[in-house]
Design a protein that fits this description.
alpha/beta; six-stranded parallel sheet; 42% helix; globular
Length: 571
């Protein structure tokens, strides 16, 4: 049976012309699963699809970014021309998509001038007044709870009803006048929605399209999944647009919306029936209070799924917490982000625990069987200097020496952008930041810069753009050598990473020389370097494999997936 989708959700690459343009993306995606084009679509796509499908609205997801990455001959415009939904939806969640999302929106409008184009996400929300004035954008759904406003919008369009009653909507009328309806739909909890993977499985059958649903470039080899515990955050990291400060300001979210611990536990158990791959639980289980984590873990404990489960630790925890985790998960891992070894710098970012407190938590976790404990540091922080960055690497060496090979430290730049809506962006002078990009068009243009140095939207009172770039490569080089020394990396892997870092530094210097030239010589010389740029923009300061967790031989449980195809309303 053929289904005409009511809504097609399109995920664009960061830079639409990434296959042609010579851009040195640098280490901006080294510590996330995606490549530098950020082909992983937002987790919110799944809850949108589940909610709309449950209400009789057919949704199709197409990951254009991945299709373009995987097939050099794939023509996204040709595919868009063949699509005939009632509306297109495009995510502009984080600003690295400021170029690609707008270009894809323009293609939709070019090929289908009468089909509405809807954008949404954190960045779309922040810049909604500017975004709605682009001719290719008809609607912006604001806030972090787009599912129900989007449903109401689609119903209003289908039934030709007034748009003035749709919450969270910014829109243009027939005279191109802009209207911004009040942002009143803010979920108090998340139990109404779920990441229903069976909806995805059925979508494959409905549209005969598996390629477009795959979230990241190596998903078949590494089918990691995510479980959301909340929307919002209880913390105020100064550089984060998703902080309590930021979401209160531009999403009207005064407090976190949590998914009940019972439902989060059920999500984890449900996923473990479909896959043996790692499950990443987004958000510290203790944000809603100690009882939240206790309830969730007690529900998991009788089953003890064998997947590698990854938990976040926002602040140090008592030993009892790690004991409960170990009782529920036979294979568990932790991540924490102290940002800097220097407690003064850490406090300036909005985090107030000490190194001693963090190290006690690491010891508790490892003593109770933690498989891998990742510690993330950052470059480009308030009060941080180049000297401080290298001292952080000395601290990483101390951690590896103290805790052994299950402790894996990482460092990367805060790149490419400082989040609009964050404390550092909104109070730049107060926090010591100099912001180069102020509006959406600034970000769109910045993404076309020939290297990530020129894409960086900020510098600090203590570190210039040059300092951030040079320190990133120097720190990556030194940490790579320490990892080989302490046995976290074999010599072959460490040597490959060192060669990439050295080549990346050389490419940065070449770009600095080339940008001083006049056209067309400048473009010709940059184009000649494209292959080298591509080679050093993936696994730059660390090997991509370092951020992964083990996957069992049978990654997917196909019998259970097939059964899910025939289950209506499964979890």
């Amino acid at each position: 049976m053929f289904f005409r989708p009511d809504l097609i959700l399109l995920h664009a690459p960061s830079v639409y012309d990434f296959r042609k343009l010579p851009i040195l993306f640098g280490p901006i995606s080294d510590l996330v699963p995606s490549t530098p084009i950020f082909e992983m679509y937002p987790v919110g796509f799944s809850s949108i699809a589940e909610h709309l499908e449950r209400n009789g609205i057919h949704v199709r997801i197409i990951n254009l970014a991945l299709r373009m990455l995987k097939d050099k001959d794939f023509d996204p415009e040709e595919l868009i021309a063949k699509l005939h939904p009632r509306a297109f939806g495009i995510d502009l969640h984080w600003l690295p998509h400021a170029h690609g999302s707008l270009e894809v929106a323009a293609l939709c409008k070019k090929r289908h001038p009468d089909i509405p184009v809807i954008l949404g996400g954190y960045s779309a929300t922040y810049f909604h007044e500017e975004l709605i004035r682009y001719p290719q954008v008809d609607f912006v759904v604001r806030g972090d709870s787009a599912e129900e406003p989007l449903r109401q919008l689609l119903v209003a369009l289908k039934e030709n009803k007034s748009l003035g009653e749709v919450p969270n909507l910014t829109w243009k009328d027939g005279k191109k006048e802009v209207h911004a309806n009040p942002l009143t739909h803010v979920l108090p909890d998340l139990d109404e929605y779920s990441n229903n993977y069976s909806t995805f499985f059925r979508s494959v059958i409905k549209y005969f399209d598996l390629k477009s649903l795959i979230p990241i470039h190596d998903w078949w080899e590494y089918p990691i999944t995510a479980v959301m515990t909340c929307r919002g955050c209880t913390h105020n990291c100064v550089f984060c647009g998703g902080s309590r400060f930021g979401l209160d300001r531009f999403c009207s979210r005064e407090s976190c919306a949590f998914r009940s611990p019972e439902k989060v536990a059920d999500d984890i158990l449900s996923i473990s029936r479909y896959t043996n791959a790692p499950i990443f639980v987004v958000g510290d289980l203790r944000q809603a209070g100690e009882s939240y984590g206790q309830t969730l873990l007690s529900r998991i404990r009788p089953v003890r799924p064998k997947n590698q489960v990854v938990l976040e630790l926002f602040t140090p925890a008592p030993e009892s917490y790690f004991q409960m985790v170990a009782e529920a998960f036979p294979n568990f891992n932790f991540e924490t982000s102290p940002e800097s070894h220097d407690e003064k710098v850490r406090r300036a970012t909005g985090k107030y625990f000490t190194n001693q407190e963090m190290e006690k938590s690491i010891r508790f976790a490892l003593d109770h069987g933690c498989s891998k404990f990742d510690v993330f540091f950052m470059i480009g922080l308030p009060q941080q200097t180049p000297v401080s960055v290298m001292e952080t690497i000395d601290y990483c060496a101390y951690l590896m020496k103290t805790f052994g090979r299950r402790l894996n430290p990482f460092i990367s730049p805060l790149a490419p952008f400082l989040d609009p809506g964050s404390i550092a962006f909104e109070k730049a002078d107060e926090t010591g930041y100099r912001v180069f990009c102020k509006n959406l068009e600034d970000y769109r243009k910045a993404l076309l810069a020939p290297s990530w140095k020129y894409t960086l939207s900020y510098e600090t009172r203590w570190m210039t753009r040059d300092d951030i770039v040079v320190s990133s490569y120097q720190a990556g080089l030194r940490l790579n050598r320490w990892k080989e020394h302490f046995g976290l990396l074999d010599k072959e892997t460490a040597d490959r990473t060192e060669k990439r870092i050295l080549l990346a530094g050389e490419m940065i210097r070449k770009v600095d020389e080339i940008v001083l030239l006049d056209e067309p010589e400048r473009s010709q010389m940059l184009l000649a370097l494209k292959e080298s740029f591509d080679r050093v923009s993936m696994s730059t300061v660390c090997d991509k494999g370092e951020i992964k967790w083990p996957v069992f031989r049978w990654r997917l449980n196909f019998p259970n997936i097939i059964r899910a195809l025939f289950q209506r309303g499964a979890n």
